[in-house]
Amino acid sequence: MRCFRHADTEAVGVCGGCLKGVCPACAKESAHGMLACSDACVLRIEEAEQWRDKLQSARTQQRVNIWLGPTLYIAMGALFAAYGFQHAGYSLDLATVMGLLFIVYGAAYGWRMRQWSRRQLH
Ligand SMILES: [Zn+2]
Ligand SMILES: [Zn+2]
Q: For residue 3, with 0-12 CB atoms within 10 Å meaning exposed, 13-18 middle and 19 or more buried, which class applies?
């Protein structure tokens, strides 16, 4: 491949912004060490890199958020169970049973999310 500006010079790489061949005289480098043909392309590459970083941190965020659902179920179940237990004079009633079911469901939900997030990592 030849340089996009110098037709008789062999390119050392490809611009990461527009995929044109660049020779050593034309090549610029982005902050991440990618080749670029112009300042405009350096900006474009760096914007893309920033987007990628953002997406990556969003994905990390998601890994934390998966615990929100299960935790909510378990907390609600505990509240239900505690309320029902007290309300029924410290014996089992429907609210207590429902609360316990919520806790079991929350635990199963959390377990499933953990399996799921593990699969996403590989
Ligand atoms: Zn370019
Ligand atoms: Zn050139």
A: buried
